[in-house]
Design brief:
The chain is mostly helical and 357 residues long. 73% of the residues lie in helices and 0% in strands. Helix 5 packs antiparallel against helix 6 and helix 6 packs antiparallel against helix 8.
């Protein structure tokens, strides 16, 4: 197989100005003030639209569902816009080339931990899995360390973390961060111990991934802010339909699904609820922004936190589309090991949180 894939290119930095221009700073501060104002009045406006303008009754199933939808759509999109903008600025510090250079040559244990942390702060998702995998392997990064990054990047991404903090508070966000990092480190370490380099498609090792981008360049803040705006246009423009679809599903759960029913199938009492949640999550295709409104609705209806976290992690980290993408570089046996190791970690997290909380 002679196919070659290049690493995701990073747009070269423009020559920065000496500093941040006052006009640029004022415009961004005004945008931030407008964002804060819109976020502050969102709840009052959503109730005004639902009950005064549209005439729904709060006590009805339809009224509750419509209020949830009208309130959550702008709330999640506002949070997503701010987070993606900040992520765009972060991306200007963590390019693919710099990420590889940080990981190459590291000892495996330290590399697993560092790769997992870099997976949190770098905005690479399943669509980047193949070229990133090739770049890491050809740069001499150990296979286990590479898998720690591949697990952490989609599952513990900064968008999910910030949205969880905004929706549920720091405790849930911290639990998600800690357990996700633990799964990423442990999964990479286990795969590294198994010495499965022979289960990578042979053509990967023959590939020479080019080093492109902005190595050695430091863009100024004018350029970093521009990167943030570009990320908002690119990412929010792609995922907003998934966000609205996820909120619509969450609204249906919020309005019509009885609390007792959800607690019975996703509560702490049913031993099979965690593996069932994982099995349901794997075939789904969504991102963190799209699945979080569903998570919020499930928790509101009595589902256990551990079960819901297991569901969310399986959707994000073990999605079927990502497995299809990874098939280009991994043999089916290695994909099975990857799914088995990560899936076991997710099950442990689900049962652990159901037992402790």
């Amino acid at each position: 197989m002679s196919e070659t894939l290049s690493l995701p290119s990073y747009k070269p930095a423009e020559a920065p100005a000496a500093g941040l221009r006052p006009r640029t700073l004022l415009l961004h501060l005004a945008a931030l003030a407008a964002w804060a104002g819109a976020y502050a009045v969102n709840e009052d406006v959503s109730q005004l639209i639902t009950f005064r303008l549209l005439g729904f009754t709060p006590a009805t199933h339809l009224g509750a569902a419509v209020e949830f939808f009208v309130f959550e759509v702008p709330k999640v999109l506002l949070l997503l816009t701010l987070v993606v903008f900040v992520v765009g600025i972060v991306r200007s510090f963590f390019t693919p080339e710099r990420t590889r250079s940080l990981l190459a040559g590291r000892r495996e244990a330290a590399g697993n931990a560092l790769a997992s942390l870099l997976g949190v702060v770098t905005p690479f998702c399943s669509c980047s899995a193949v070229p990133m995998f090739i770049g890491f392997v050809t740069a001499g990064v150990p296979l286990g360390v590479t898998f720690s990054f591949l697990v952490a990047a989609p599952m513990v991404n900064e968008v999910a973390l910030a949205l969880l903090f905004g929706l549920f508070g720091w405790k849930v966000a911290g639990l998600y961060l800690g357990t996700g990092l633990l799964i990423a480190v442990a999964s990479g370490w286990i795969i590294g111990r198994l010495k499965l380099e022979g289960w990578v498609e042979p053509w990967v090792y023959r590939t020479r991934a080019p080093i492109e981008g902005m190595a050695g360049e430091r863009p100024g803040w004018e350029r970093r802010l521009a990167i943030g705006r570009e990320e908002v246009r690119e990412i929010v423009g792609k995922v907003w339909l998934y966000v609205i679809a996820g909120i619509a599903v969450g609204a249906g759960i919020h309005g019509w699904v009885p609390e007792n029913f959800m607690a019975s199938i996703m509560g702490k009492g049913a031993w099979w609820s965690v593996p069932l949640a994982v099995l349901i999550g794997i075939p789904m295709y969504s991102n963190a922004a799209g699945i979080l409104p569903v998570v919020q609705a499930l928790l509101g209806k009595g589902a256990a936190l551990g079960t819901v976290l297991a569901f969310m992690m399986s959707v994000i980290a073990l999605s079927l589309p990502e497995m299809v993408i990874l098939r280009k570089v991994l043999t089916p046996r290695l994909i099975a090991v990857f799914v088995g190791v990560v899936g076991t970690g997710i099950l442990v997290v689900g049962y652990l949180f159901n037992a402790l909380l």
